[in-house]
Specification:
single chain, about 100 residues, mainly alpha, about 85% helix, elongated, DUF485, transmembrane, membrane, transmembrane helix, DUF485 domain-containing protein
């Protein structure tokens, strides 16, 4: 019986839409994060003096707030994904489940 349900889910056009939208969105966010992270690492590798510039009279350099920014971008991107997952993706999942319940 469960194989029958799996087959119905796999052939459901809304499931294909869900998988496509979720994958495309996740890849976009992953690419943004990778670009930010690797840009940060490349600056450290090839122009470390840029991040060594001091801010004010203290010991804080430009690299500290930029590094914190990279971490914050990761949190923001996670929040964006969670927002969409709890909205659009959950709605599609609910629709698929309702269609399967109605097909029984």
């Amino acid at each position: 019986m469960s194989e029958n349900i799996y087959d119905k889910v796999k052939t459901n056009p809304k499931f294909a839409e869900l998988v496509q939208k979720r994958s495309r969105f996740a890849w976009k966010l992953a690419i943004v994060m990778l670009v930010v992270y690797y840009a940060f690492i490349l600056v450290i590798a090839f122009s470390p003096h840029l991040f060594a510039i001091k801010i004010g009279e203290g010991v804080t350099t430009v690299g500290i707030p930029i590094g914190i920014g990279v971490i914050l971008i990761a949190f923001v991107l996670t929040g964006i994904y969670t927002q969409r997952a709890n909205g659009e993706f959950d709605d599609l999942t609910h629709q698929i489940k309702e269609e399967l319940r109605g097909a029984k």
